[in-house]
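job 3f2a | input accepted
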Amino acid sequence: MFEDTSQDRARLMLLWAIGLSLFGEFVLWVVYGLVLYPGYPITTLIWAATCGLAMGSTMGALSYLLLSKLKLGRVAFFSGFAISAFVLSVCNVVCFVFAKQFALWGALASPINFLGGGFVGVLIGSVFYSWLLFSRSGNNFRHRLFGLFV
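job 3f2a | predicted structure (150 res):
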């Protein structure tokens, strides 16, 4: 299931953390940056891509540093969830502060919607990340969908 070398574990954690963070940021960019509060699509796209890379890199690196010895199981799942939720929550609040300062993405018009939508994404993304990397069924799903190398 989970690769045996620490280099493979690091690659997996970073790949999935960055990929899921970029996907989440893209969804939020479409919803908040294009549909609900349009105005600066290129600026907000660059912001979303930068934040997605930073969040994913931080989440993947912390996961590897703190969880590299854990392979599968309840402790690994909940630890991965906690790391992911912490990093994504901090990023959500920091993004809110900056978005409010620059009057982007509805942070001024609807702060509860902005933060609430972000925290829903934090919850969904953290569960999915932990499930893919730290549960037997998530590993099986990942291998069936993407093959042996992911």
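job 3f2a | The chain has a mean pLDDT of 89.
job 3f2a | closed
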